[in-house]
Amino acid sequence: MKIRVGSRDSRLAVIQAEMVMDCIQRHHPEMDVELVTMKTTGDKILDRTLDQIGGKGLFVKELDRALLAGEVDITVHSYKDMPMEQDSRLPIVAVSAREIPFDALVLPSGRRQMDPSKPIGCASARRQIQLEALFPGTEIRPVRGNVQTRLAKLESGEYGALVLACAGLKRLGLEDRVSRVFTQQEMLPAACQGILAVQAREGMDVSFLREFHHASVHIIACAERSFVAELNGGCSAPIAAFATIAHDQLTLEGLYQEESTRRVLRDRITGPCTDAVELGRRLARRMREEAETR
């Protein structure tokens, strides 16, 4: 049996797809696994922020088209980059173990301290509002492109520092570029940051992904994504969500910026893992009601 794995053609995306492929081949050596890469619209347009060009869906629509057309059998994504609205014909059929979920500060090579006269580069409103609180008075400027492109802009002197996901840096073997890992209290991560998601066509036999799938991470992902979805959060919305599980109890912490007042709200909720989706919705509603009553 042959399985064609669809992926964006960036170095990080390929490494992530190969993580899935390696797991399949290790547990199912009889299967023939092939990588199929493609460049998405989101990879091609780098001079504007995602909210200006159509959102996170631009990173998946070409892969979705190929999957629906039968050109590939499964696709691999960074779960945090997937839009909240998904095609029911293309369900998420497996999620990975979670890599370090937090963000990292990256400085130019050889520097131990950030140059406050230069901007910090980041790619999301979520990071921006939290960086403004951590580094008051320092300019926060958008930066687009893959990790290597962003690092090149840092080294050229365009930025004094970058904020990147620890997970991507680790998967690329760039852990030595991390100057500081932000704590959960300092910077709440994006929903599903550090998690890989595998999509397939509805009804497809995906038993070959059984060893790759982590059920507990799927519960965490459902809680985080339901929180964001309830707040109608897209790539431009300053929203963060981070869940953990202990003793069959899920704790979800959320952050978002109320649109009219620009006030940043942060709260948490705990409940049974079986209520993961409802916990996310409940926390979102509670925070929205708090914003509206103040």
Describe this structure in words.
It catalyses: 4 porphobilinogen + H2O = hydroxymethylbilane + 4 NH4(+). Its cofactor is dipyrromethane. Tetrapolymerization of the monopyrrole PBG into the hydroxymethylbilane pre-uroporphyrinogen in several discrete steps. The chain has 294 residues and is α/β, with parallel strands linked by helices. It has 3 domains: 115 residues, Periplasmic binding protein-like II (D-Maltodextrin-Binding Protein, domain 2, 3-Layer(aba) Sandwich); 79 residues, 3-Layer(aba) Sandwich (D-Maltodextrin-Binding Protein, domain 2), CATH 3.40.190.10; 81 residues, 2-Layer Sandwich (Double Stranded RNA Binding Domain). The protein is 31% helix and 25% strand. The strands form 3 sheets. It has a 5-stranded mixed beta sheet with strand order 2-1-3-10-4, with helices on both faces. It has a 5-stranded mixed beta sheet with strand order 7-6-8-5-9, with helices on both faces. A 3-stranded antiparallel beta sheet has the order 11-12-13, sandwiched between helices. α1 links the parallel β1 and β2. The chain is globular, with a radius of gyration of 19 Å.
Strand order of the largest sheet: 2-1-3-10-4
Q: How many helices in DSSP terms? A: 9
Assign an overall shape: globular
What is the share of helical residues?
25-40%
Spatial gap, N to C terminus = 59 Å
Strand elements, count = 13
- From the 3D structure, determine the CATH topology of the largest domain: D-Maltodextrin-Binding Protein, domain 2
CATH architecture of the largest domain: 3-Layer(aba) Sandwich
Estimate what percentage of residues fall within beta strands.
Answer: 15-25%
Class of the largest domain, according to the CATH hierarchy?
A: Alpha Beta
